[in-house]
TrEMBL record:
Protein name in the entry: Calreticulin
Organism this protein belongs to: Xenopus tropicalis (Western clawed frog)
Predominant cellular place of this UniProt entry's protein: other
Record-linked PROSITE patterns: CALRETICULIN_1, CALRETICULIN_2, CALRETICULIN_REPEAT
Binding residue positions for an alpha-D-glucoside: 124, 126, 143, 150, 332
Region described as Disordered: 222-294, 357-430
Family: Belongs to the calreticulin family.
Biased composition (Acidic residues): 267-276, 395-423
Amino acid sequence: MEAAGTWWCIVFCPNPSHVFASLKPALQPRECLLNLLEAAGRRSWDGWSQRWVESKHKSDYGKFKLSAGKFYGDAEKDKGLQTSQDARFYALSTRFDSFSNKDKTLVIQFSVKHEQNIDCGGGYVKLFPAELEQSEMHGESEYNIMFGPDICGPPTKKVHVIFQYKKKNLQINKDIRCRDDSFTHLYTLIVRPDNTYEVKIDNSKVESGSLEEDWDFLPAKKIKDPEAKKPDDWDERPKIDDPEDKKPEDWDKAEHIPDPDAVKPEDWDEEMDGEWEPPVIQNPDYKGEWKPRQIDNPDYKGKWIHPEIDNPEYTPDSTLYQYDSFGVLGLDLWQVKSGTIFDNFLMTDDEKYAEEYGNETWGVTKEAEKKMKEQQDEEDRKKQEEEEKKRKDEEPQEEEEDDDDEEEEKEEEKEEEEEDEEETPLKDEL
């Protein structure tokens, strides 16, 4: 654990397979950052699989591979961990020096790229306590925080923010929509010691608030007074019927009346057709159901509000944000269609640095990534147009060939008929 008054930062990037931890005096955080980045920049992806552990809890977990994907901003900088097998669960994790976020801000940040136009699958990370046995990590393994995008058809396109509290996994009570295109996006979760939080996508705030208000960590502060009852004479009606209003005597008119212009047909036979009745029409004098006019209710007291009292089961907790042990970062998820790339993992207590680091990694290559994708899309479009043109050009030729075949068949039939005609006289002579 870090000593009091220190600054800490754990970087899994520019390549997410490497973990770098640093403790420096709080007076010199920037020097720590520069040294950390320089160290990270000199490292390569060599041996990444030795630093990440594949769970053996199941034998058919999907495999990750190192890739920048089909399109990217930089072939090396954009390399990350990519899911490679469809319809699989994935369980991969990496360990770092254990720490607690007591009395400190916690920033969790990483980038996700669903270049496969994902239809159903997770893009989130889990932070586990240090005691996790990585080789046995699975979907039910106890974690501290789960954060990141999850997509499954049109109904589910959300950012999960789940905290484990007293052995329960608590989902946020708000709906945070994730990005669902095929480009790389940066996801950031900030948890502060004052029990507030912030969620950012692409370094822009999309949600924030209070842990206590936006999750069900604690029972409600107030509850309805079980002893309170609405008085029997409490009138909640703002309007009432005017007792002085009376229905007019000529109000009751039938909705439909016989058509006065209808004439019995001349050929109508009552013995055969029955008694003739004129058709009915809408009554022009029909006024509908009569209702007395409304007036203000002199006894109106407003809507009765159930009085509340302090909840005897509520106990405040100033440490909702706090976890005693973080030691493992894991990718524990399911994907129907593989191809997601995870990169630029970062954990720190410096919000400003996290923003800068995001701009220096994801931010540097995002535009070039989009440009490459646009070029590929344009090439694909031209290729499709050429194939379509080629197909259309071949259609007349095929029709001509079919016509030639028909002509040949007709010629053959004609020759056969002529031969038959020549043979017929010979038979007669015989």
